Amino acid sequence: MPALPPPPAPPVHRETVVFAAPASPFRRIQLYRLVFDVPPTLTTSPDRLAFRRCCCLAAWVCGWLLAFAHALGAEPPRLRFHLPSGDAADTLAEFGRQSGEQVVYLVDNVRGHRTREVVGQFTAWAALNQMLAGTHLIVHRDGVDGPISVSRRAEIPPPLPRAASPPRAVSSRTDLSDVVVLPEFTVSSQTADRYRAADAISAVRVRASLLDAPSSISVLTRDVLDDLAPIRIFDVTRYVAGVQEGRGIQFQDRMILRGFESNGQRSVDNFLQPADADNIDEVVIDRIEITKGPNAILSPSGSPGGSINVLTKSPLYDRQRSLTATLGLFDAQKLSVDVTDTFGAGSPFAYRIIGSLQDSRRYWSADARLRGRVFAPMFAYRISDRTQLTVKLIGAEHWIFREPLLILDPAVSAQTRQPYLAPGLSTRSRNGIQPWSHVGTHTADLFALLTSNLTDILSLRVAANGRYYFEDSVQEFLATPSLTERYNPMTGELTQDTVWTLDPATNTYVPTHSPFFDPASVPVRGDKQATRRKTVNLQTDLVGKFQLGPVSSQTVAGLALSRQTNYGRGVSGVLPGVDLSQPQRRVVPAWSSDWLFYYVTSFTNWQAYVNQRVGLLQDRLQLTGGLLHYDTKTRSLNRVSSAPPGVLDDEKDMWMASALLKLRPNLSLYYSHSTNSTPVIANDVPLWRDGVQDEVGFKSEFFNQRLSFTAAYFEIAQTNVTVPNPDRQTNPAAPEQLVSDLGNHGYEFEIVGGLTPNLSAIASFSQLKMRDALGRHVRAVADHNAALLLNYRFRAGRLDGLSLNVGVSYNGRRAGDSPINYTPLNVVGQTSFFVPSYYVTSFGASYRWRDFLFRLNVDNFFDDQGYLQQAGGRVSGTGITTAPGINVKASTTWNF
C-alpha cells in the first residue's frame, strides 16, 4: 500500500463550533482481505459456526457499504441545499447540518453578519461561498480534505458587543485573527469523525490527544449513542476492545474490562461512583471515555481492568431544542426533552434542561416493568474571558424488574455444549417470580466545575460533587439448598441432585440422592432492603505547560477529598414455594421483624498526586511519571452480629510511568506501567486490593485524524479480589464475599473513525487469558471477543438524509459459575458448566426531514433467543440470563 502523506501539524486548541465530520470524499478505495485465525478454543462446531457467521456477516456488510462509498464518492457531490438568509451564527450551523462538512468558527466572530439565501443543488464549497457573498466573512480550508474555517476579515470590527470568552491564543494564521483557547480540563468540541474524537480527559483529568496518550483510551461519541439507542451503557461499549458484558443485564451497568468486573463502579464527570445499582440514563450522556488498565489518578480505587468515565452534557451557548418519543416491543416507550440556549444575545449565562420519562414492559412479561424518570437542570456562567463556572443537577429514579426464575437442569455439566434450563422453566416467562420483585433507585447528583486560565501557562480546575443515593428494593430470591455439600469430594465436580456426607464408620464420603428443588414447590423468600449513601467529593487540579528551549513540560498536580456515609439493611419475608404449573399466581411476603442484615459503613479518603510529562526531540519522545498518595479511614460495622467493627486506617502510594515515541506525526509507540489499590472490608476483614499492569502498544491516525488504529499487549493482576458469593443467594449464613487473586494477559486491536467521508466504523478484537489463583476460568469472562459497527450516511441524491448502521458483537465461551476452592479431601473445585459463545446483532436507520429525525432500531434482527447468554451461577440471583428475542424500536425527534 502506498505510504500516506503525514497529516498537517495539529492546530492550536480553540473554542470553536464544529458540525458534522469529513470534508471531500475519497477518489479511490482499496478493499483488503482480512484473514481470521480461528483460536484453538473455537474448534467445536457450535463455536466455529457462530464465529464464522459473525465474520461472514461483517465482511458482507462491509463489502457492500464500501462498494456504495466507492460508487458515490468518485466526485465531490452536488447536495440539495435550502439555506435561508439570516444571522451567520445560525445559518452556518444549518449549513454544517445540511452539508455534513466540518465547519470551524467562533460564534461571536460571525454573529451579526447577514448571509444570503441559497436554494438548489450545489457542491458544499460553492454553496458556502454563495451564502457568504457580500459579507465580511472569509473562508479557508486546511488542506484538500481538512475542515472549513470561517472568520471575519482582520480589519472588520465585530458588529455586536462581544460576549465574555476564554483567553485568546496567539496564532500564525492571519485568517483566524480572533480565536480562543479551550481550558486544559475540557475536551474539544471538534470531532475528527462522527464516530471518533481526537482527544480525551480520562488519563489525568487533563485534555490530551489520543495519539499522545501512553495508554489505551477509547471514546464513544454522542453520535454512536444516537445511532444505537441504548438502554444501558453496555449496549454501546460492547463494540470497544476489551469490554465484555457483566453478570446480569438488568441493573448496575455491570461490565467486564480486560477480564475484571466493574461491579457497577464508574466515573461521572471524573468523579468515581461506588457500586450502586442504578443505570445512568443515556439522555444525559455526552460521551463515554474508557481507559484500560489501572488508573491511579482518575480511579485510584477502581477496577484494575479499566475505568468507565461518563461525561455528561453541559449548557451550550447556542440554541438547540429537541423532543424525542420512542416506541418499541420492550424496553422502549420513552419521552425525552433537551433544551439549551443562552439567556439572551451576548449573555454570559447559558442553561440546559434535560428530562425523560419511561414506562415499558420487559421481555419476559407485560407486568415485568422498566420505569425511569430523569430531570437535569444545568447552568453555565462565563465569569470572565478566563474563567467559567458550570453547575449541574441530575436527578433520576428507576424501577427495574429484577429477573425471572431460572435454574439449570441437574444434568448440565462442564461437558454440556448448550446448557439448558430444568423442566418446567420457560425462557419467556417470569416463572413464578412476582412482578413486584424489583430494584428501585433514587439518585441526585450535584456537580460544580470552575475552570480558569490563570496565566498563559497555568490553568486551574476546582470541582465538587455531592451524591445522594437511596435504594428501596423488594426482591424475590431462590431459597434452594446450598451447593457446597453437593460437590464430589473425590473429583471436585458438582452433582446438583446429590449430597455428599462423611460416613464415620468407614471414613468415606457417601452420596445421597436429594433433588435440588421440587417443581411443585420451588423454595423462595422475600428480601426487602434499603440502602442509603451520602457522598461528598472535592477535587482541585493545577496544570502548567512550559517550553524550556527544545524541551516541553507539562506538570499536573492535584488534591482530592472523598467522604461517604452509608447504611444497608434488610429483612426477609416468608413466601410459599413457586408452583411451576401455576407461574402467574400472585402472593405477597410475610415480613420478619428482625434484620436479615444491617451494615453501617463510612470512609474518608484523601488523595494528593503529581504527574509530570517531558517532551524531547520536538515532542517525538515523551516521558511521563505520576505518583499518588492515598490516605483512607474505612469503617464497617455489622449490627446483626456481635463482631467488632472492621477498620482500615492506612495509607498507600501508587505510581505510574510511561514512555511514548512518535516515529511519525501519525504513528506512536508506547510502554506504560500503572497501579491502583482499593481499601475494602470483606467479610468484616480489612484488605487492600492491589492492581498492577504493564502495557505496550502502538497507535496510528489516518485521513487527517479521521481514522485511528490501535493495538496493545497487556499483563495485569489483582490481589484480594472480592465477588459476591453465589451461595449467599440461597444460604444467608454463607460468607457474603469470595476472596481470591486474579491474573490476566492478552492483546487488543481497535479501529475507530471514518473509512470514507460517508462510512464510519468501530471494529475491535481482543484475546486474553484470565485465570484465578488455582488456574481456573473466571466466571463470565471470555477469552475471545470481537465486534464491528458500521454506519453509512447518504449525502446526495434522493437518499440524501438517510443513514444506515449495522452492528455485530461476538463473545467467546465463558465459565458459568464460581466453584468452591477445595473439597473436604483437598481437591480443587471444578467449574460446573460453561456458557457457549454467542453473537448479538443490531440494525438501525434514520432519516432527517426538515425539523424531524426518524429512527428505526432493530436489536437481535436474527431473532436468536432462549439460549444461555450470561451466567454467574446455576440459579437466579447470580446473574444467569437467557437471550431475549428481536426488539424493534422506532423514535421521532422534533428539533424546534
TrEMBL record:
Its main location: membrane. It comes from the Bacteria. One of its GO terms (cellular component) is cell outer membrane. It is found in: Cell outer membrane. Gene3D superfamilies: 3.55.50.30, TonB-dependent receptor, beta-barrel domain, TonB-dependent receptor, plug domain. PROSITE patterns: TONB_DEPENDENT_REC_3 (PS52016). Pfam families: Plug. Keywords: Cell outer membrane, Ion transport, Iron, Iron transport, Membrane, Receptor, Signal, Transmembrane, Transmembrane beta strand, Transport. It is a multi-pass membrane protein. The keyword Mitochondrion does not apply. The keyword Ligase does not apply. One of its GO terms (molecular function) is siderophore uptake transmembrane transporter activity. Residues 210-306 form the TonB-dependent receptor plug domain. Belongs to the TonB-dependent receptor family. This is TonB-dependent receptor plug.
